[in-house]
Backbone:
């Protein structure tokens, strides 16, 4: 099984050649008798509360066998096991890189009643820290609940403003919005992410700051947007006659510039080896979700994620939903040549889930270098996008059904609604209408339809997956989150790329700093930015763009 | 100039052959001296309050000349003029189709101080109706403002729930969220779109219904999702002891099943020939925007849209921003083969603008049939997606910078913030930081950067556009909306496809109705859905999928 030493390469795998051969004639979903009841039932896998239906993918038994062979050749499950056990796998061999383990799994390893296959493993310190922080959060929230912790007038805090960006924003925000029925006693969470000053102005507007907590989240403690927004928010508190240090919390890495207890009512820590886009189950998500939804709901979310993590260790794709979905995604991306992936939840609660997945997937696998530092001569992560159905049906599905651009779709559905507040119109409930539309799309995209009017033809053969859960509870949401995290990880392991760094964000930061220099000089001296002070680093292109855009 | 009879075909145009030849060696933005100050200044066009900078597209003078020639061969500006004049252009020749004019331009033709080039044209009736409805809205809102119209306790209405889906939701929602600084006296607008019952449950939660208006929007008056959500909302009012007909408004086509004054406090009409995705400047957007932001702000929005419409009549791309952007988009889609388009506003206020553009662009141009009913043997509209910057930088820009999947980017920026509530940190304001990041991305994507570490290389040659405005006011937002509407229209005219129908949404509706039959039978008789009543239309695949997904 341990065949994935530095010898394995995706494009050199035997299974790769076989898949390339098979992709010349992918399974035709539109052929008479191709899509049958038997196929729909047979191509189904289950785990951690979900069913994954993949009968509407363009795969036959030969393609599925070759995908399984690919997973074996890559030792995908073995690699994933080592990843979860805490091996140093965030690295590029022979080049400077982050060179550390990947430890978000530890943040939900919080349940003694669930098995721990790596009890004495390298993940131990991260698990210990995660459990310690979780206990601190429990105590902190209990004090808010009991009234032991309150504002200067002994009134309870009603609102929390979460300041973070990227991984410190998208995941927590998507999860909070997805669990509104669990909101506690009128508490509300607000989010500020963008350095655009209008973001903070809008979020702070109308809040009773005396009853508001602010949680500042930055692992490095040096994220420009977050520090700037913290300054804006502190000013608002000071102007309101309030002491920021009695209202501000922070989540940061131990020893970061932000790790300064004098400035914060409470400080929570996250482990350095947890990447931002994988941090929603750490304190990064914990503080705002615990405040807004209660500690028990956050714990349930962790339990669901942990259950999916454990299910992701199964070596066979038929028992491992993330691995199975990863393989089908690789089939679509590399062998059928489809560059995007639409994630289409039939659940309004998941309105910002695709925005989180964009970071998770595209920042992890939008890479073109192997773990050995070679140019990747194959396509990696797709462009991920999507909106909830049925809304999307009335928006962009036109292109998915009828244009030449084939878009693989991942549908997500739940048998029950969250609130259970439904109405029967024309003999069916809204939830049944929602599901009828979901299933209709799965079939229509696969089979298509001919018509005498060429403008009413549907070519079909648009592949889709259907991930079905029972009800979008905190536990189900945790499992869904981990499903996608682990799917993305599996794809990176099979492509043999490093899914855990993000060097592609650096160049923009460097250039932005230079252009900021132009602004600084303009602000400071009133000198025309065309004439920077002697010795300062000049940036002719940045200056030219500022002028062409008529900004200076 | 009138060369675009039925003889014109995109792939047969002389300019098409020339562009295909040129695309083999597109302009190399990474070559030394390629991206210069002169180029950035020279490749700039202006109109209706915006500058369009396109020096970071992969075009040289030969490609630009060929694109201009393509516009002439297609008679793009002449076709657009006929479109705006009210000619019947929503049609497929020789086949059953909607066969009507395209009249959303009329909804902002409301200003006697602006020129009207089609004063006696076919658009007159639509203009007359639009102005009449606008005046009715003005009076209605004035009565709310003065207190002449109020609830049963003579209290003012504070909240409005907007119920609609697709074009009756995405545009109004994106515009409302974009103009929060203009919100009037604490009034709030809420949106319900999805048939998912949790959408309505969440939106209605916590509202004081006695002070709430509900605006139901459906041109046909028969949209399943909207009628279902109206039923849910009416039930909530009845249960609260309130009379729905004193709280409910509607926007619909004259004579639709919804056009029933007994059921609504007020009814506003929209013209039948306005497609949903183009309806935000009609009463579809007018009622909620007027309520939330005031009539004057809505009028300013219309003025900006009208100004961009008029600027879109210029025959030369250099003076016509939508036409210029359309041509560059066609270059990227058809000649450089790039399947997606990222729209990246550096303005948090535009947080849902890309969701609106997804419908506008993908439902308009996600087509594969020409206006003559022939198979389109070329690619049409791209997959449109995006999120505001700087947020996106911390999310998906990794893929844009470093993966092999090249994503053309359309950046949108404003020189000033909306609120003007800013802070100086490290010598620059947040607005300056926002712009510095924007400009840094434009340059970084174009030029790339070499590095000894292969994981830190940026290949560059990622094309982008930069649309710069002064400040995101209602007028600037109206112009931005019309810029994209008219860009999409121009692309359809040049591709010679019908951008104004949406046959691709029909198949899903038909299949959903069949699957609903399964639910109806299950609900009614308690009979297992495997045995439908004799004579009922059976749907074996739908039933199989319901069973495979364990829903029945």
Residues:
């Amino acid at each position: 099984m341990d065949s994935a030493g530095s010898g394995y390469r995706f494009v050199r795998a035997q299974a790769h050649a076989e898949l390339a051969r098979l992709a010349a004639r992918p399974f035709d979903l539109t052929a008479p008798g191709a899509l049958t009841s038997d196929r729909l039932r047979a191509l189904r896998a289950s785990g951690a509360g979900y069913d994954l239906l993949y009968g509407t993918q363009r795969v036959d038994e030969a393609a599925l066998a070759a995908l399984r062979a690919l997973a074996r050749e890559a030792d995908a499950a073995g690699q994933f096991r080592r990843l979860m056990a805490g091996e140093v796998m965030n690295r590029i061999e022979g080049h400077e890189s982050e060179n550390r383990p990947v430890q978000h799994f530890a943040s939900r390893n919080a349940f003694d009643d669930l098995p721990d296959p790596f009890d004495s493993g390298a993940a131990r310190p991260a698990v210990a820290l995660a459990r310690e922080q979780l206990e601190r959060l429990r105590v902190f929230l209990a004090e808010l609940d009991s009234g032991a912790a309150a504002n200067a007038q002994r009134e309870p805090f009603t609102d929390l403003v979460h300041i973070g960006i990227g991984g410190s924003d998208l995941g927590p925000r998507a999860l909070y919005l997805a669990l509104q029925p669990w909101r506690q006693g009128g508490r509300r969470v607000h989010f500020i992410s963008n350095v655009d000053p209008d973001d903070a102005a809008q979020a702070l507007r109308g809040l009773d700051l005396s009853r508001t907590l602010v949680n500042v989240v930055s692992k490095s403690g040096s994220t420009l947007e977050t520090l700037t927004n913290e300054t804006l928010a502190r000013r608002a508190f000071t102007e309101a006659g309030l002491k920021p240090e009695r209202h501000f919390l922070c989540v940061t890495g131990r020893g970061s510039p932000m790790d300064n207890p004098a400035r914060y009512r409470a400080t929570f820590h996250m482990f350095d080896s947890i990447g931002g886009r994988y941090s929603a189950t750490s304190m990064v998500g914990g503080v705002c979700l615990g405040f807004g939804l209660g500690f028990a709901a956050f714990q349930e979310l962790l339990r669901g994620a942990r259950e999916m993590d454990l299910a992701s260790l199964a070596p066979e794709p038929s028992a491992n939903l993330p691995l199975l979905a990863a393989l089908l995604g690789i089939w679509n991306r590399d062998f059928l040549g489809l560059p995007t992936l639409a994630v289409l939840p039939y659940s309004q609660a998941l309105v910002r889930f695709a925005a989180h997945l964009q970071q998770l997937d595209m920042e992890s696998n939008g890479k073109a270098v192997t773990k050995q530092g070679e140019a990747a001569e194959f396509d990696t992560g797709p462009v991920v996008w999507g909106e909830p159905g049925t809304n999307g049906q009335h928006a962009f599905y036109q292109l998915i059904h009828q244009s030449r651009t084939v878009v693989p779709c991942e549908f997500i559905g739940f048998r029950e609604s969250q609130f259970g507040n439904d109405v029967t119109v024309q003999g069916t409930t809204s939830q049944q209408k929602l599901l009828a539309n979901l299933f209709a799309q799965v079939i229509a995209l696969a089979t298509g339809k001919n018509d005498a009017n060429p403008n009413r033809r549907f070519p079909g053969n648009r592949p889709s997956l259907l991930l079905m859960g029972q009800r979008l509870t905190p536990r189900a949401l945790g499992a869904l989150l981990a499903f996608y995290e682990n799917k993305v990880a599996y794809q990176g392991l099979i492509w043999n790329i490093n899914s855990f760094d993000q060097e592609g964000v650096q160049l923009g930061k460097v250039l932005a700093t230079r252009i900021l220099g132009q602004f600084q000089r303009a602000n400071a001296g009133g000198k025309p930015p065309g004439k920077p002070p002697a010795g300062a680093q000049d940036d002719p292109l940045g200056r030219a763009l500022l002028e062409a855009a008529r900004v200076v």
Notes: The longest strand of chain B covers residues 212-217. The mean pLDDT of chain B is 95. The radius of gyration of chain B is 25 Å.
